[in-house]
Amino acid sequence: MHLKTKAKMLDILFIHPNGSKKIYQELSNEHSAIEPPIWAGMLANHCRNRNFNVEILDCEVEKLDYITSSIKISEAKPKIACFVVYGQQPSASSQNMVGAIATSEELKKNNPEIKILFVGGHIAALPYETLSSEKSIDFIALNEGVYAISNLLKVTDLNDDNILKKVKGIGFRDKNNQVFLNDPEIIVPKKLLDIDLPGVAWDLLPSLEKYRTAGWHSWSNNSEKQPFAALYTSLGCPYKCSFCMINIINRVDNSNNISSKDSNMFRWWSPEFIIKQFDYFAKLGVKNIKIADELFVLNPNHFIKICDMIIERDYDFNIWAYSRIDTCKPQYLEKLKKAGVNWLGLGIENPSSIIRKEVHKDAFKNVKIIDIINSIRSAGINVAANFIFGLPEETKESMEFTYNFAEETNPEMVNFYSAMAYPGSPLYLEAKKNNILLPKTYSGYSQHSYDTQNLPSKNLTAAEILEYRDYAWDKFHTSKKYLNLLEKKFGNNAVKNLNETTKIKLKRKLLGD
User: Which is nearest to 411 in space by CA: 371, 448, 374, 361?
Assistant: First the structure.
């Protein structure tokens, strides 16, 4: 954070909290990515464009613990300290509450006059519960919070309950400690994205040289992880997968039992606006870029135009983006590769048609997954395959089937996840309804934490699934077949990077560590 002016009071400080040690254990030292806080940067730009005095504090990239983070916030003396609780994937909001709450409690203890506001996926999913249980929080922004935050900044007296009850889009506790959730604000309409959510305030963030991409993404850039940039070109997703909570930030209904499937929506910025962000990265010499969209390869009128503009400028990017199996059509691949898309993340989840149908990926049934993987590779694009163990119908045999499929196809990168009941997902509501054990801590929602609490299936315990997940990850990433692929495609540096990662063994409370 670099305060631009001390003469004028800081209206709002956007804070990206740091809970990396609890979330990633020893992986946080060198191996987990450090991603620019996209939402903090976008919210800062929104407020700055409305003439508020704004700064950003990225506690993760600055390696600040909760005590030093609190000191930095106190020194800035903002009217509002806004904790933006997102992560490197949409589902990471709950786990990032770890660092956010530790810091807000320390800040409230030492500087009670600074008002604390929270925004993010976890808060959108559990607004009432968050305000009720976390006494250090003064306000929450409902849904994505864009208009709610600028509404709150217009309030001259943040201690006046009667005024606060009229601020659309927020929740708060009054002087009698009663929780109020006001009517939600609208989310930013597609036609206003360029105006009301005009990209990331890159100038308020630390140098992109400080951010690092994931090791595997760097393999197609001579294993150079830094600098690194990430951006959205679209928001949301039109699908309703049971394990996903991404669309909960589109929520405009405070009723109980609302999940992401009730709020699915897809919006995108104009390609003419997005290319300016890529121009900025190119000017800074940034090659590693993550397109953080839940689905970049979805609407060809959007992503193909962006690719055309990048190709016209002859930029040399190393891009990672997401696609679904059934939206990744062969005719798109040559253009994606020419634009610098070297990796496509595919949500295969489970190759069994029975379990895919169960998680509402019915459109996959007529798609031959192996054919799509082969066509992507033939275009020179690497496959980052994502699999989930532990969906409701999972058995030991189906987990082995998934692992064997991964081993057979041997993608350039593989993620094995345990099914998790993320707040905001349909699985979370199902787990609550059926009294299934949920994480007792925020870090329990992390795939890599000591106290990970994943879901059981109808046939397997949570511990059995987690144990198999860790076994599968280690077996795949130490196999000769996979290491030979890496050496052939990316060289010894990639193999060395992976070997350093596989030396780190995660400790698991659920497994008796």
Answer: 374
Q: How many CB atoms lie within 10 A of CB 496?
A: 14
Specify the DSSP class assigned to residue 212: B
State how far the Cα of 92 lies from the Cα of 72, in Å rounded to an integer. 24
The DSSP bridge partners found for residue 81 are 13, 116
The whole-angstrom separation of Cα 164 and Cα 170 is 8
Q: Both tokens of residue 288?
A: 């590693």
Peptide bond into 227 cis (omega under 30): yes
> What is the C-alpha radius of gyration for the chain, rounded to an integer number of angstroms?
22
Q: Are 389 and 416 in contact (CB under 8 A)?
A: yes
The answer to whether the CB of 46 falls within 8 A of the CB of 150 is yes
Q: Residue 34 has what DSSP assignment?
A: B
* Residue 397: predicted pLDDT: 93
pLDDT digits (tens, 9 = 90+) for 474-497: 999 999 999 999 999 999 999 999
Q: From CA 122, how far away is CA 251, in angstroms rounded?
A: 12
pTM of the model: 0.93
Phi, psi of 373 (to 5 degrees): -60, -45
